[in-house]
Amino acid sequence: MTDGSRDDAPERAGSISALRDPDRLRSLAETRLTAAPDEAFDRFARLVADLLDVPVALVSLVDAERQFFPGEVGLARPWAARRQTPLSHSFCQHVVDLGTPMVLPDARLHPALRDNLAVPELGVVAYAGMPLTDLEGRVLGSLCAIDDKPREWTAEQLRTLDDLAAACSSELRLRIALDGAEQARRRAEEANGRLELLAGLAGTLAGTLDVATALRHLRDTMVPLLADWSLVTLVGPDGAPRDVTSAHRDPARAPDVARFAELMRTGLSARSITRAVLRTGRPVLGAAATLDDVRRGTVGPEMPELAARLGFSSHLSVPIIDAGRVLGCVTLINGPQRRDFDESDLLIAEDIGRRAGQAIGNSRMYGEQRHVAHVLQHSMLPELPVTRDLELAARYQPAADRVEVGGDWYDAFRQPGGELIAAIGDVAGHDIEAAATMGQLRNLVRGNAYGRPDAVDELMSRLDETIRGLHLRTAATAALVRLHADDAGGQRITWCNAGHPPPLAVRVGGAVEVLAGAPEPLLGLNRPVRRTTRHTHLATGDTLLLYTDGLIERRDRPIDEGMTELLARLAGTDRLPLGDLCDLLLTTAPRREDDVALLAVRAI
């Protein structure tokens, strides 16, 4: 890590354009963080202070006028109570400006920063700040360590600070995603609250977040309640009809109405009423109509002939609109045996179009939020190391039909001496807090284990102590494994298990061994726990499998049955490529009720 400052760093906020970037400010606002204390970010500050042995540590977010500290430890009065300063007292604004770390052994010697009021009034002398970023890489602030005397920051300290900043950035990103999800949820609730008319339709639209399902419910509810037959048209990117669904009150007419819907995509002329509604967003009421209306709006004779068989004497068409954008068109048609549509019908249809637009918009937003949540979850999973004596593969699969992120995680990294540390864990919960705690826990494992030759039970005990000392309120399981090449060409394995499902060894020849022992408690209990190191060996070709309980646990059966099924699936899989083995375990199991993380290590 190098000094990220520069001699011409601007001192006044007005000259730092990055501070005023509207996308950055919007992302910062979506964290919903203020100058009030936030326990999660206070934990990050305490971690920095403890691990780097500094008197002051801050999670500093910078807007266009100030910096504020949702996480803080060590600030003197009155700043500790205010949890914010003007930019005249800010070093972190320059981290936002540069987009890179800023490391200062003695700020008083820096030409551009020695006159910053943070030096005399906050006692900032030595400073190390790492950027905190959103998912798009925009810098929202800095995770910084501060000393009131000069110091030379070590590479290990800066690496630790960088790891903590990555976890802190993940927390910020999760807060932003939560804000988006909450907005989508509020919008759906508001839309459902306004569905006072057509209660049956309201229930069906509110009961699904799938666009196709919502359209089928919409179509089927309108017929025969409001019309003899109906068409629901959605537009494509070019504004032309793309998807058309249809219904008729007479089941015998289903083929005819389906054919009419099919021709709607290709058989409409420039004078088509549907095209006019899609283009202008204005409704059209044909209180008394004839087949000439169909002929004028179509090309070729087939659609008028179908309309004659389906019954056509009155029609109305209304736009499906969401946030001012025309998504499609609802068309209702009555035959001669039913009264003509009037203005009251048009009002009901317009209401349906608006509500359908909201339902479709919410469905699409749900899909986008689910995608964002999954991207965030995967962004917190590490890249696996590449080694000559071990092959690694990992998978993460979220539970079906859920937007939330969860607490399952895995990790694998090389020690300076060449040993491999592998870990897997599960934080209780399926929400933003579980995912945030997961990110902290994974980084704590790295911070506790990297560069240490300690036995795995000692590493796990230290992790217990850290969780207790930092008052992390969490229920979590974990398994920690150390692999070291031996002279026989295999791998010596030691492991420690804190309440997690036992590791498995798939031996050459197809046998499966459960690496079990006396059960040990979860992580983070209030009292000290004696941890145990256990030993085994991997011969060349043997595979070690670490997994979370979503692979074996279901609400409708004992977990022992799930373990029995897993062992049966693993039997004879020793020759499968490692990635194929992981895929097999995920695809052959029943529908998931929980997230699943897998980490497989094979001696080669």
From TrEMBL:
Gene3D superfamilies: 3.30.450.40, PPM-type phosphatase domain (3.60.40.10). The keyword Hydrolase applies. InterPro entries: Bact_Sigma-Reg, GAF, GAF-like_dom_sf, PPM-type-like_dom_sf, PPM-type_phosphatase-like_dom. Keywords: Hydrolase. Residues 36-182, 200-370 form the GAF domain. Residues 387-603 form the PPM-type phosphatase domain. One of its GO terms (molecular function) is phosphatase activity. Pfam families: GAF (PF01590), GAF_2 (PF13185), SpoIIE (PF07228). The keyword Isomerase does not apply. Coiled coil: none annotated. This is GAF domain-containing protein. It comes from Micromonospora echinofusca.
